[in-house]
Amino acid sequence: MTRHFLTLYLSIVIVLAAVSWGQERLWQSYGGSQSELPQANVLKLLDGQLQAVPREQRADLVANAARDTGLDLELLEPQDLAGAAAIGGLANGKPVLMDGADGRSWVLQRVEQDDRVLAFRFENQPQRGLPDWILAFVFYAAIALVIMIWLWPMTRDLRTLERSTVRFGDRNWSFDAVIANRSPVYPLATAFRRMAARIDGLIGSHKDMSNALSHEIKTPLARMLFEIELARVAADPAALQRHLDHLNTDITELNAFVTATLEYAVLERAEVALNIGTHDFTAIVPAVTESVKRGARADLDFHCEVVGDARAVVCDVHLIETVLRNLLYNAIRYANRQIRVSFRMVDQQRYLLCVDDDGPGIPEVDRERVFGSFVQLGRPAGQKAGFGLGLAIVQRIVEWHGGTARVERSPLGGASFVIDWRAPAVRP
Fold it and tell me: How far apart are CA 381 and CA 425, in angstroms?
């Protein structure tokens, strides 16, 4: 940050010096020929006195005036001037400022009705004294102070952001930088905070996956090894077939786990692109519900309702179907008798999908954790409760649609899963 401050400060100083030098040169080039010059006023006064004396006495008058006043005054002949351009510039009777080779300047004034020229030589560039240098130092120090005051809040916030980032990189998976909303680096801090939350979520997901792998894969593998040993010593074909059926069951379970894990991994990637379109949910929601119902327990009562004109719902229909199926599979595991599915349009751009059951429900403290990957809050007695990925997949799909997934208390007494999203932009 010090290097950036010095670079900015030196740039400002150089620009100010260049502008000051340029203004001085412009004044010398364009402002020096004006009659407002004090030396030009002296020459005008002397020119008026020269008009009152004969031509041959004018040189003596100028010499006497120079001696009496101490000014460097001189009456020059045309041939004493270097170059005809100067004479041409004096033809209109106005004073002309010229720089001499010795560092001094000349103000020239043509005498009326005379070819000669009055010249007033003077020191144009006085030497800077100590007070001038002190004032210049104070001026540039004030510029540095203003820049430092302007940069200090940003420097402070950047250092805070840097320390938090270093701590995050040291495996302290939390981003604790406190940056005010009015800070210039607040958008950067917000982006870092989102990134940190995303990384923290991925790390947690990988930990959950490791735990799940140790159980969901190792347990079936142990059973398969046991069945293989039993199959080797089977005394009759019926026992051998029974062991082979058990092996096939375990293989099917492993394949389902791998499929669910791969589906979840796809949704975790940032490059997933939605296939947005307009779809008729008055037909899709009942069709998906009926499809899931055919594989459910016979004692379950399904009720499906679509409210309003839902024939032009904007979404990725394949992913939203996956959301509905996963919510229904979850409800089937825990419902006692009833499952209700409802879909309605809050307005033309906002949609609500609800799946209710009459099961035990979800405690309020677990309602956010239930959407985590590989999280299983409880298993019904004697039932396989999946792999803990269904609701995690639901949340990822809803996030890709810019919506939210939440759990509430159902009017039926169990859990109510509410999916709320707005219509994404339809691609041409």
Answer: 45
